[in-house]
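Below is one protein, fold included:
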Amino acid sequence: MRASLIQIAVDRDESVDSRRRRAAELVRGQRGSDLVVLPELWPVGAFAYESFEAEAETLDGPTHRAMAEAAAAAGVWLHAGSVVERAPDGRLFNTSLVLSPEGRLAGVYRKIHRFGFDKGEAVMMAAGEDLVTVRLPQATLGLGTCYDLRFPELFRGLVDAGADVLVVPAGWPERRRAHWTLLARARAVENQSYVLACGTAGTHAGVEQAGHSIVVDPWGEVLAEAGAGEEVLTVDLDPKKPAATRDQFPALKDRRLGLAPPASARP
Protein backbone atom coordinates (compact mmCIF):
# COMPACT_ATOMS: atom_id res chain seq x y z
CA MET A 1 0.00 0.00 0.00
CA ARG A 2 1.60 3.23 -1.13
CA ALA A 3 0.78 6.40 0.85
CA SER A 4 1.73 9.94 -0.12
CA LEU A 5 1.56 12.80 2.39
CA ILE A 6 1.43 16.25 0.77
CA GLN A 7 3.01 18.74 3.16
CA ILE A 8 1.66 21.81 1.40
CA ALA A 9 2.92 25.30 2.29
CA VAL A 10 0.38 27.86 3.46
CA ASP A 11 1.14 31.51 2.70
CA ARG A 12 -1.41 34.24 3.39
CA ASP A 13 -0.29 36.04 0.22
CA GLU A 14 -1.66 33.12 -1.84
CA SER A 15 -5.43 33.15 -2.30
CA VAL A 16 -7.52 30.23 -1.14
CA ASP A 17 -8.65 29.61 -4.73
CA SER A 18 -5.04 29.54 -5.93
CA ARG A 19 -3.96 27.14 -3.19
CA ARG A 20 -6.97 24.94 -3.89
CA ARG A 21 -5.97 24.66 -7.55
CA ARG A 22 -2.35 24.00 -6.59
CA ALA A 23 -3.32 21.30 -4.09
CA ALA A 24 -5.49 19.63 -6.73
CA GLU A 25 -2.53 19.51 -9.12
CA LEU A 26 -0.34 18.01 -6.41
CA VAL A 27 -2.95 15.31 -5.79
CA ARG A 28 -3.20 14.57 -9.51
CA GLY A 29 0.56 14.08 -9.51
CA GLN A 30 0.28 11.15 -7.07
CA ARG A 31 -1.11 8.65 -9.56
CA GLY A 32 0.33 5.28 -8.53
CA SER A 33 -0.26 5.87 -4.84
CA ASP A 34 -3.13 4.13 -3.07
CA LEU A 35 -3.73 6.81 -0.43
CA VAL A 36 -2.95 10.54 -0.49
CA VAL A 37 -3.20 12.77 2.60
CA LEU A 38 -3.39 16.57 2.86
CA PRO A 39 -2.96 18.61 6.07
CA GLU A 40 -5.44 20.29 8.40
CA LEU A 41 -7.20 23.48 7.23
CA TRP A 42 -4.74 23.97 4.37
CA PRO A 43 -7.16 26.17 2.37
CA VAL A 44 -7.23 28.92 4.99
CA GLY A 45 -4.56 28.10 7.62
CA ALA A 46 -5.17 26.49 11.00
CA PHE A 47 -4.34 29.68 12.92
CA ALA A 48 -6.05 32.15 10.57
CA TYR A 49 -9.01 32.52 12.91
CA GLU A 50 -10.01 35.88 11.47
CA SER A 51 -10.69 34.17 8.11
CA PHE A 52 -12.77 31.25 9.35
CA GLU A 53 -16.16 32.93 8.91
CA ALA A 54 -15.41 34.31 5.45
CA GLU A 55 -13.85 31.10 4.12
CA ALA A 56 -16.30 28.61 5.66
CA GLU A 57 -17.93 26.32 3.10
CA THR A 58 -20.63 23.70 3.04
CA LEU A 59 -19.77 20.03 3.01
CA ASP A 60 -20.27 19.93 -0.77
CA GLY A 61 -18.42 23.22 -1.29
CA PRO A 62 -15.53 24.18 -3.58
CA THR A 63 -12.82 22.24 -1.73
CA HIS A 64 -14.90 19.06 -1.82
CA ARG A 65 -15.55 19.47 -5.53
CA ALA A 66 -11.94 20.23 -6.42
CA MET A 67 -10.59 17.35 -4.33
CA ALA A 68 -13.19 14.88 -5.65
CA GLU A 69 -12.14 15.69 -9.21
CA ALA A 70 -8.45 15.37 -8.29
CA ALA A 71 -8.95 12.03 -6.51
CA ALA A 72 -10.81 10.64 -9.51
CA ALA A 73 -8.20 11.96 -11.95
CA ALA A 74 -5.37 10.32 -9.96
CA GLY A 75 -7.34 7.18 -9.11
CA VAL A 76 -6.45 7.44 -5.40
CA TRP A 77 -8.13 7.36 -2.04
CA LEU A 78 -7.77 10.94 -0.81
CA HIS A 79 -7.85 12.22 2.74
CA ALA A 80 -8.38 15.83 1.69
CA GLY A 81 -7.23 17.31 4.97
CA SER A 82 -9.82 19.51 6.63
CA VAL A 83 -11.89 22.58 5.83
CA VAL A 84 -13.87 25.11 7.83
CA GLU A 85 -17.33 23.65 7.37
CA ARG A 86 -20.48 25.71 7.81
CA ALA A 87 -23.22 23.33 8.86
CA PRO A 88 -26.88 23.90 7.89
CA ASP A 89 -27.56 25.28 11.37
CA GLY A 90 -24.79 27.86 10.96
CA ARG A 91 -22.23 26.25 13.27
CA LEU A 92 -18.63 25.93 12.13
CA PHE A 93 -16.71 22.65 12.29
CA ASN A 94 -13.13 21.61 11.50
CA THR A 95 -14.14 18.88 9.07
CA SER A 96 -12.05 16.24 7.29
CA LEU A 97 -13.16 14.63 4.04
CA VAL A 98 -12.13 11.24 2.67
CA LEU A 99 -12.81 10.59 -1.01
CA SER A 100 -12.74 7.35 -2.98
CA PRO A 101 -10.79 6.82 -6.23
CA GLU A 102 -14.06 7.59 -8.03
CA GLY A 103 -14.39 10.92 -6.22
CA ARG A 104 -17.19 9.68 -3.95
CA LEU A 105 -17.39 11.01 -0.39
CA ALA A 106 -16.43 8.00 1.73
CA GLY A 107 -15.92 9.58 5.16
CA VAL A 108 -16.53 12.78 7.11
CA TYR A 109 -14.82 13.48 10.44
CA ARG A 110 -15.53 16.58 12.53
CA LYS A 111 -12.64 17.31 14.89
CA ILE A 112 -13.52 16.37 18.45
CA HIS A 113 -10.77 18.15 20.42
CA ARG A 114 -10.60 21.84 19.48
CA PHE A 115 -7.42 23.75 20.20
CA GLY A 116 -7.20 27.18 21.78
CA PHE A 117 -8.45 26.76 25.36
CA ASP A 118 -10.60 29.93 25.65
CA LYS A 119 -9.96 31.45 22.22
CA GLY A 120 -9.59 30.63 18.53
CA GLU A 121 -10.83 27.27 17.32
CA ALA A 122 -12.02 26.26 20.79
CA VAL A 123 -14.67 29.01 20.87
CA MET A 124 -15.31 29.53 17.15
CA MET A 125 -15.98 25.92 16.19
CA ALA A 126 -18.32 23.25 17.47
CA ALA A 127 -16.93 19.89 18.58
CA GLY A 128 -17.51 16.73 16.61
CA GLU A 129 -19.00 13.78 18.47
CA ASP A 130 -18.30 10.71 16.34
CA LEU A 131 -15.34 8.38 15.91
CA VAL A 132 -14.86 7.73 12.20
CA THR A 133 -13.18 4.88 10.34
CA VAL A 134 -12.99 4.37 6.58
CA ARG A 135 -12.47 0.94 5.05
CA LEU A 136 -10.01 0.78 2.15
CA PRO A 137 -9.29 -2.43 0.24
CA GLN A 138 -5.92 -2.74 1.99
CA ALA A 139 -6.59 -1.29 5.45
CA THR A 140 -9.01 0.54 7.72
CA LEU A 141 -8.26 4.20 8.39
CA GLY A 142 -8.96 5.79 11.77
CA LEU A 143 -9.37 9.56 11.57
CA GLY A 144 -8.08 12.23 13.94
CA THR A 145 -7.00 15.84 13.48
CA CYS A 146 -4.03 17.74 14.97
CA TYR A 147 -4.82 18.45 18.67
CA ASP A 148 -6.63 15.09 18.83
CA LEU A 149 -3.14 13.54 18.82
CA ARG A 150 -2.81 14.49 22.50
CA PHE A 151 -5.81 12.35 23.52
CA PRO A 152 -4.93 8.63 23.41
CA GLU A 153 -8.44 7.46 24.28
CA LEU A 154 -9.72 8.67 20.90
CA PHE A 155 -7.21 6.52 19.02
CA ARG A 156 -7.84 3.50 21.24
CA GLY A 157 -11.50 3.86 20.33
CA LEU A 158 -10.59 3.90 16.65
CA VAL A 159 -8.52 0.73 17.04
CA ASP A 160 -11.43 -0.94 18.84
CA ALA A 161 -13.51 0.03 15.78
CA GLY A 162 -11.07 -1.81 13.51
CA ALA A 163 -8.53 0.84 12.49
CA ASP A 164 -4.98 -0.22 11.69
CA VAL A 165 -3.79 2.98 9.97
CA LEU A 166 -4.28 6.19 11.97
CA VAL A 167 -4.37 9.32 9.80
CA VAL A 168 -3.73 12.70 11.45
CA PRO A 169 -3.69 15.87 9.33
CA ALA A 170 -2.42 18.87 11.28
CA GLY A 171 -1.43 22.50 11.35
CA TRP A 172 1.12 21.94 14.14
CA PRO A 173 3.30 24.88 15.27
CA GLU A 174 7.09 24.71 15.02
CA ARG A 175 7.52 25.68 18.67
CA ARG A 176 5.99 22.35 19.74
CA ARG A 177 7.48 20.16 17.01
CA ALA A 178 9.13 17.82 19.54
CA HIS A 179 5.66 16.93 20.86
CA TRP A 180 4.43 16.22 17.32
CA THR A 181 7.06 13.56 16.72
CA LEU A 182 6.79 12.10 20.22
CA LEU A 183 3.00 11.82 20.17
CA ALA A 184 2.89 10.33 16.68
CA ARG A 185 5.28 7.59 17.74
CA ALA A 186 3.41 7.03 21.02
CA ARG A 187 0.06 6.59 19.25
CA ALA A 188 1.69 4.07 16.88
CA VAL A 189 3.31 2.02 19.67
CA GLU A 190 0.37 1.90 22.05
CA ASN A 191 -2.11 1.00 19.29
CA GLN A 192 0.24 -1.18 17.22
CA SER A 193 -0.90 0.72 14.15
CA TYR A 194 0.63 2.79 11.41
CA VAL A 195 0.43 6.55 11.98
CA LEU A 196 0.39 8.91 9.01
CA ALA A 197 0.76 12.42 10.41
CA CYS A 198 0.63 15.11 7.72
CA GLY A 199 1.45 18.69 8.67
CA THR A 200 1.79 21.96 6.82
CA ALA A 201 4.78 24.07 5.88
CA GLY A 202 4.88 27.86 5.82
CA THR A 203 3.23 30.26 8.24
CA HIS A 204 -0.41 30.46 9.38
CA ALA A 205 -1.34 33.98 10.48
CA GLY A 206 2.16 34.55 11.83
CA VAL A 207 2.49 31.08 13.40
CA GLU A 208 5.44 29.16 11.94
CA GLN A 209 4.45 25.61 11.05
CA ALA A 210 6.41 22.55 12.11
CA GLY A 211 6.29 20.66 8.82
CA HIS A 212 8.05 17.34 9.49
CA SER A 213 5.20 15.13 8.38
CA ILE A 214 5.95 11.65 9.62
CA VAL A 215 5.07 8.01 8.94
CA VAL A 216 5.49 5.61 11.87
CA ASP A 217 5.10 1.84 11.80
CA PRO A 218 3.31 -0.30 14.44
CA TRP A 219 6.58 -0.81 16.36
CA GLY A 220 7.16 2.94 16.61
CA GLU A 221 9.86 3.04 13.96
CA VAL A 222 9.92 6.19 11.83
CA LEU A 223 9.70 5.06 8.21
CA ALA A 224 9.95 8.56 6.73
CA GLU A 225 9.97 12.16 7.90
CA ALA A 226 9.72 15.35 5.87
CA GLY A 227 11.70 18.52 6.38
CA ALA A 228 10.33 21.97 7.09
CA GLY A 229 9.34 23.03 3.57
CA GLU A 230 6.71 21.97 1.08
CA GLU A 231 7.28 18.31 0.26
CA VAL A 232 5.56 15.11 -0.81
CA LEU A 233 6.45 12.15 1.41
CA THR A 234 5.77 8.76 -0.21
CA VAL A 235 6.08 5.50 1.71
CA ASP A 236 5.20 1.86 1.01
CA LEU A 237 3.30 0.24 3.89
CA ASP A 238 2.77 -3.47 4.57
CA PRO A 239 -0.99 -3.84 5.26
CA LYS A 240 -0.32 -7.08 7.17
CA LYS A 241 2.12 -5.53 9.63
CA PRO A 242 -0.38 -4.20 12.23
CA ALA A 243 -1.99 -7.63 12.61
CA ALA A 244 1.40 -9.35 12.65
CA THR A 245 2.65 -6.96 15.33
CA ARG A 246 -0.43 -7.53 17.46
CA ASP A 247 0.03 -11.30 17.14
CA GLN A 248 3.74 -11.17 17.95
CA PHE A 249 3.31 -8.84 20.93
CA PRO A 250 -0.37 -9.11 21.98
CA ALA A 251 -0.42 -6.24 24.47
CA LEU A 252 -3.86 -5.03 23.38
CA LYS A 253 -5.35 -8.27 24.72
CA ASP A 254 -4.12 -7.45 28.24
CA ARG A 255 -6.12 -4.26 28.67
CA ARG A 256 -8.31 -4.11 31.76
CA LEU A 257 -11.34 -1.92 31.28
CA GLY A 258 -13.95 -0.59 33.71
CA LEU A 259 -11.74 -0.58 36.78
CA ALA A 260 -13.32 0.96 39.87
CA PRO A 261 -11.86 4.23 41.18
CA PRO A 262 -9.71 4.15 44.34
CA ALA A 263 -11.67 3.77 47.57
CA SER A 264 -10.73 7.33 48.58
CA ALA A 265 -12.45 8.67 45.47
CA ARG A 266 -15.72 6.78 45.92
CA PRO A 267 -18.74 8.65 47.24
